[in-house]
Amino acid sequence: MSEALQGERSQARPAVVSVPFEEWMRQHQFKAQSLIARFVPQVHPLVPQLHEAMHYAAALGGKRVRPLLVWAAGECVQADAAALDRAACAVELVHAYSLVHDDLPCMDDDVLRRGQPTTHVRFGEALALLAGDALQALAYEVLTPDNGVAPALQARLCALLARASGADGMAGGQTLDILATGSAINGDDLMHMHSRKTGALLKASVLMGAACAGAGRDPRAAAQQASIDSALETYGEAIGLAFQVVDDILDVTADSATLGKTAGKDAQQNKSTYVSALGLDAARHLAHALRDKAQAALDTLPAAQCASSQRLRDLADLIVLREH
Amino acid sequence: MSEALQGERSQARPAVVSVPFEEWMRQHQFKAQSLIARFVPQVHPLVPQLHEAMHYAAALGGKRVRPLLVWAAGECVQADAAALDRAACAVELVHAYSLVHDDLPCMDDDVLRRGQPTTHVRFGEALALLAGDALQALAYEVLTPDNGVAPALQARLCALLARASGADGMAGGQTLDILATGSAINGDDLMHMHSRKTGALLKASVLMGAACAGAGRDPRAAAQQASIDSALETYGEAIGLAFQVVDDILDVTADSATLGKTAGKDAQQNKSTYVSALGLDAARHLAHALRDKAQAALDTLPAAQCASSQRLRDLADLIVLREH
Known about the structure:
homodimer, mainly alpha, 71% helix
């Protein structure tokens, strides 16, 4: 994270946070990596190519923002650790599958992701397609272990993930994106698209983390659940949108080396972005306004949760102030 | 179903079956159609193309063998009707998505399915890919309603479906199929491939139907669950394999009009099949032996379940004796 980010970070609330954010983030990014390596099937002599493609695709994931959101929301509600780890892994597997399919020739036709050949370039289109399909199924497998996570919580996590990734969520948003490429669309339509394409899964990450409080929760806290859910939903929506706005800004302002992907690709593909719809300054203003909205939503949490929301605040800063 | 099939059907056990099988089958095929129409999102002005592609893909499903297996297994254990309907629909949505992806140019490159243009021919590759992805997510959405199905049962159904459709199941089998195309493989490898590619989901259909007994089950019956599961697993494996053997036989013996797809395609694509591996007579013998194995497994069910297993017996006959 940059010095600028450090300086601009919002004021800390009275929270019990023992490790600096960057250290926490590194630890949890590593944890995400380990969980994925653990849950993606070991390379088996029968279908080694599929397993290798799945590992490759899941390793291309990058910053692990979605798992970080799951864990941050979980800290905020003292969630069950085993459930939280599985939720974090599952949401990242869905994200990974979506990148593989998004990069295919019939979609965005991308050959590089984070400086590496995309999965279909490395393994061929058929295996990339199947690896994506298998990663989606694996997400639900990870969420439904034989034991260790309360069955009702398993069902709730599956429900949140499925709603966020299907036709009303990510897949619907990707469709809007594909259909809109090459034609100018207005700010409202952009928002419709992005609230689905990237927003839905980011919001689901927050809600899945919060749902993991279910099992061992203090009954008094359970009564506050509606207020917690509502605050975290507002937070999740705001940072979900902010994430995309910042992506659009970086596509214009950053260079390819920093981004790890081709900069300026949106303009090149004649894609509508927040920058093309609003201009660079207004897009920057919007990103900061969304961060403020996210932080304000956390202020409305019940006292105990508000005091444990520092990681969510840090992540809102990270999303808006990142440089790649 | 043919006259021959009627004649060859195995002897009825003492069962309470009020409607002839073919009537039951028609009713439940219609029910599958209605449920799919109900659960696939209504065409919405924002992304009509995606919803239309999903409806189109789900309507191309054909005989609805998997939902029929869910309902038949459910009858056998007096399962909860609402859960059963959702399980039947979910498994068919996964089947439908797999057909859409299987037909894509980078996979089997099929332009016709059941005499209709395949989804990508009708809607383009990008929409077909996304419709498939969204159908997979929808399956888990259907399994996890806010109410009406016990949460623990929701989790169990998600677990069974996810395991059957991922890397160790359907997607793994499709990978083996793609990799084996053009090279001769032996009978054992064929069995490995098909037990995953088609067998896993057919077996899961039976187990999902049986799982729906969970909620209101007589505690005495619960004690018999292991024996029920084991019998139905053997049944499911046998009919799963039989299904593929018969597919391979029909590819050689039936004409395209009867099949609704191009006959002789396996040989044309130089695919290994049970017919190419074993010869036509031995393949036919294997199919019948598998039907006998499936029926024998049902004979080992506890008395109450055995008495309600007629639909499962009928379906084993249907799978082996069908002409398309």
